[in-house]
Amino acid sequence: MKYGQETAKLERGDTVILYTDGIVEAMNAREELYGYERFEAVLKQSAAHPASLKDAIIGDVNRYTGLSPSMTT
Fold first, then answer.
1. What are the mean pLDDT values of the chain's consecutive 10-residue runs (73 residues total)?
2. Which end of the chain has fewer CB atoms at under 10 Å, N or C?
């Protein structure tokens, strides 16, 4: 497997998100992927505070996959 290397300049206030493929490859009952677009939308709509961001991501993935009581797909 080949891996690339990237360099990015971070500024004060920037946020770095580290995640696994388990987020974007999570599936709902119809076997549809959560996907990058949905993930990016949650990131854009959520507060930058780390705990709030984590809760928003996990909550949305759980709703999408049906792992939480209020399933919205």
1. 93 91 96 97 90 94 84 45
2. N
Strand partners, 33: 27
pTM: 0.78
DSSP string, the chain: -----------TT-------HHHHT-B-TT--B-HHHHHHHHHHHS-SSHHHHHHHHHHHHHHHHT-SSS---
Contact 73, 64 (CB under 8 A): yes
Instruction: Please state, in angstroms and rounded to a whole number, the distance separating the CA atoms of residues 23 and 54.
Output: 12
Region of residue 13 (phi > 0: left; psi between -120 and 50: alpha; otherwise: beta): left
